[in-house]
Amino acid sequence: MIFDFDQHLFEYPNMWLDYCDPDKKDLALEMTRDELGYPWLWSRVSNQQMWIYAKTVPEDGFVSFFSPWQNWKDRKPAEIDYVADMPASCIDAKARVGQLDEIGVDKSILYPHFGAVWGRYVHDRVDIIRANLTAWNRWAVAVRQEGGGRLEPTGHVTLRGGDQGWLENELAYLGSNGIKAALVSYGLVDGRRMSHPDHDRAWKAFLDNGIVPIFHIQDGDVRASGLEEGWLVDAGDPLFTALDMTFSHLGVQVAAADLILNGVFDRFPALKFATVELTAGWINGLIGMSGEGIPGSTGSVVNGPGLDISYGYEAIARRHSVQLKRQPSEYLLDHFRSTVNPMEPIATYIETGGLENNVMFGSDWPHSEGFADPLKTFGAVLGGITPEQESKFYGGTAAELLGIS
User: Fold this and answer.
1) Do the strands 151-153 and 107-112 form a parallel or antiparallel pair, or are they unpaired?
2) β-strands 155-156, 181-183 pairing
3) Which of 149, 182, 187, 277 is within CB 3.0–4.6 Å of 222 for a Cys-Cys bond?
4) What does the pLDDT look like over 22-52, one tens digit per residue?
5) Amidohydrolase-related domain: from which residue to which, for each copy (predicted)?
6) 97 near 140, Cβ under 8 Å?
7) Which of 105, 82, 114, 220 is nearest to 157 (CA)?
8) What integer pLDDT is reported at residue 72 of this predicted model?
9) How confident is the model at residue 297 (pLDDT cuts 50, 70, 90)?
């Protein structure tokens, strides 16, 4: 089975209004047009324009992604109606199944598109965030039902808001309707670390409902790097500044290390995570593998001494570390799976890097940084791995993670 673990489904303009709870319609996101004719994702209640509604095209050099923004910044009138021009395969379940046939994929996970960015614009309004995540979750169930067993949309949830009742209800709804995974932002949760005991109810709810939490490189109201917004004020790019990109592995490394070192996986040994579009380069750097004699060094990326050395030092020098049942690096390899990019040394990860059971195939279709013919693109860099390793990479690991036969 070829299982693409990284595809996105574009939310159609009225999706939030159509699927929002009736008493939350005033909080639903909408599509509006500005004076130049550009369609924007918009929050009526906060009067906030968020994101230009534009399609993207794999391997087009980011033209489809950046051109609308550049033209808007130059105050040029919109020349293309991206709403009318959006291909059906970007927004419609049955059309997406047809697209899977075109690229040779049997099954695909589906993540939100605009859901990866809009939360940052209403960070202080948990009511808006929850209402629109609920709308996506209702649509995700409908898409799964229309997908004929080929589509696995994720849910989208947040740990924010203090009371975990909303999260538990959402996960119960998703699980009862066959959804196998849900995006959740990595980083501090209203100032609390992810491993905080207050969040144990959340991790239990994920497990009780058979849902795998997924960290995506951009999700909701959290930067890829996890850096505080003060570092990025006036940076000019609301999505991905140069500083944010430089430290794009930092946020997930801190989140994973926190979950491991503070004993979450001893409390919940069946809990597993997936990371998407973060590459697998963050994994060995966190373990502390050294290719050049520098602790924590992998290629040109230098971290600290890694999980195991740091945990051992704390135990000796400070004597107040959480007493783990295993080495921290063992939890990392057992509890995290990651999609990879064909520019990474995937064959090396699999053959000699100890990540045979951790890396997964993902096309990122239809984003501009995604791949139009992903099987060909990935196949060109996977020479030398065994058929069993290939089977795991292209679908076996993903299916096992989600409990799909």
Assistant:
1) parallel
2) parallel
3) 187
4) 999 999 999 999 999 999 999 999 999 999 9
5) 134-404
6) no
7) 220
8) 94
9) very low
In 3-state terms, what secondary structure has residue 189? strand
> Region 123-148: what's the mean pLDDT?
96
Which DSSP category does 153 fall into?
A: E
| Among 257, 255, 230, CA closest to 244 | 230
**Distance (Å, rounded) from C-alpha 69 to C-alpha 236?**
12
Among 19, 25, 30, 29, CA closest to 141: 19
> Band of the pLDDT at 265, cuts 50, 70, 90?
very high
Say if CB 155 and CB 179 are below 8 A apart.
Answer: yes
Q: Which of the residue ranges 237-246, 259-268, 291-300, 396-405 would you say has the lowest mean pLDDT?
A: 291-300
Q: Which amino acid is at 2?
A: I
Which neighbouring-strand residues pair with 337?
Answer: 274
**Contact by Cβ (8 Å): 109, 152:** yes
Read off the pLDDT of residues 98-134 as tens digits, 9 standing for 90 and up. 999 999 999 999 999 999 889 988 989 999 999 999 9
Q: What does pTM read for this prediction? A: 0.94
Of 130-144, 213-227, 369-383, the poorest mean pLDDT is in 213-227
Which residue in the block uniquely carries the two structure tokens 């946020």? Answer: 251
Beta strands in 65-141 (DSSP E): 107-112
The tokens for 48 are 């906030």
Closest Cα partner for 29 from 110, 111, 128? 128
Q: Are strands 3-4 and 107-112 parallel, antiparallel or unpaired?
A: parallel
| Full DSSP string of 90-109 | HH-HHHHHHHHHHHT-SEEE
CATH of region 3-10+89-402, choose from 3.20.20.140, 3.40.50.2300, 3.30.70.270, 2.30.29.30:
3.20.20.140
Helix H or strand E encompassing 376: helix 374-379
- Structural contact between residues 211 and 270, judged by C-beta atoms closer than 8 angstroms: no
**Would you list the domain boundaries of the chain?**
3-10+89-402
